[in-house]
Amino acid sequence: MNQNRIIIIDDHTLLRETWSYILNSAPRFTVIASSGNAEEGIELCKQHRPDIVMLDINLPGINGIEAVPLIRKFSPVTKIVGVSLHTQPSYVKRMMKSGASGYITKNSSRDEMIQALLEVSQGKKYICNEIKNILAQNILEEDDEHRNINALSVREIEIIRFVKQGLSSKEIASTVSISVKTVEVHRYNILKKLSLKNAAALVNYINQYDIAI
Which top CATH class is 151-208? Predict the structure, then answer.
């Protein structure tokens, strides 16, 4: 049975030793080297051309996200699995866009770590269950936000467009030929329906959820 040769790059000695023990005890893996920083880790990858690198994101000097393309430059066949305390989807996106094949958190179990390494060794992508659950929750929250948008009238959506452009209530009133008071009523109703405090919050809301208004 072919073994996947692994290099571990993490600045915590205990984690490196623990992961090495776990993986060396598994039939499909062997840890050939480890490092506490990206610079040394990249050199190890140049020398050994490992099958997989387990790469922490928070490293002294060059961070994990910056290290991904450098590792792939010197060892294109190497698969990279990001490992981090960070659960924000933005970190996962940046890591995967840089060229990583997988992402697990330090809350992941031993079994999930091995599953991630097996899947990336087969050319697949892997994102751990903790991140998948967060992504699913974000989608549900975005669906709720879109339901709120759908509660707006055509006129209210029109007002939002002008607010986003930075127009004052007086300028909006002149543009659509209604009174300033009517514009203010519309603006009040928009904020109430969307549970927002002011125009700045409204613009942030539209931009945050990338809503086409």
Answer: mainly alpha
Is the whole-model pTM more than 0.90? no
CATH class label, 4-133: alpha beta
Of 13-22, 166-175, 186-195, 196-205, the least confident = 196-205
In residues, how long is the chain? 213
Extract the tokens encoding 206.
């539209």
Tens digits of per-residue pLDDT, 135-158?
877 665 655 555 567 777 888 888
CB neighbour class for 48 (10 Å; exposed up to 12, middle 13-18, buried from 19): middle
Asked if 197 contacts 191 with a C-beta cutoff of 8 angstroms, the reply is yes
Beta pairing partners, 103: 82, 127
Give kind and range of the element (H or E) at residue 12.
none
At residue 203, φ and ψ (nearest 5 deg) are -65, -40
The structural domains of the chain, with segments of one domain joined by +, span 4-133, 151-208
SS3 90: helix
Q: What is the token pair recorded at 69?
A: 């393309």
Average pLDDT (191-208) is: 79
User: Tokens for 64?
Assistant: 């994990």
Give the pLDDT confidence score for residue 145 in this predicted structure. 52
